[in-house]
Amino acid sequence: MNGEPALTYVYAVAAGTSPLRASLAGLRGVGDAPVGILDPGGPDATAPVFVVSQVPAGQWREEALRSRFEDLAWLEDTARAHHDVIQALTAHTNVLPLRLATLYENDDRAREALRAQQDIFSARLAFLAHHTEYGVKVYVAADTSDDLPAEPGAQPDLPSPGKAYLRARRAHHHAREDRYQRARQAAERIAEAAALHAAHAVRHPTQSGPLTHGENGENVLNDAYLVPDENAGAFRAALADAGRGLPGIRIEVTGPWAPYSFAMPPTAQPAAPAADPESGHDRGRT
Predict the structure, then answer these.
(1) Among 59, 85, 160, 269, fewest CB within 10 Å belongs to which?
(2) Per mean pLDDT, which range of 114-128, 146-160, 188-202 is the poorest?
(3) Domain range holding 173?
């Protein structure tokens, strides 16, 4: 980087095995930076390591990231590069993905954090071995019959257009509530079917906005499941069965993913990095 000060960017934690080291040959990460390994030092060659890149401090310090994270094109490219590194690792070994823009002032600071959490990282890698994350989203289709009735006066043949309008609005409201109640019940049925074949589940907030409407309908369930690899086929089959006979309901299954939703216990996060802005990125699960 032409002598410019650098920060240590951490993508993930992984066991320092030979397959991991081989998988990094020629791999590029954020900003097209080479990807390498930062180990904790010591005699155990399989101890958890950080998968890292060196990135220019001027572009990645907190003050610079505040504006860069408002650049959606840059954010999309960076998030994709981060995700691509993690997916490349998962083809060869078990990993604990870390959040986008997990940064340390230098390798020494990163190594301190790695050493401080060796026991947590080792336990979590063992816990996630031979498991994969899948996403399950449930959408309820838009119902054109739920359109609002005409304003009063649009039907002059009615003796009381105002009362008719209010009755129609109430009927519209009740029909909509009934439809969403049925959708929520269907979503819980689908979640129960998925859970039978999963080791753990996380419920994420349902998604809203223009990308989750239109052809998709409205998102009423957004779960992540940690599935034993031997159960993957049964997991998908159970979801297909659960979706039958549910008109207006669409199930979207994504994965297999690295275990983003299960990488760390809620109380165990890597020690304070140099900068870790919230990105809002949905870790490639679109």
Answers:
(1) 160
(2) 146-160
(3) 133-261
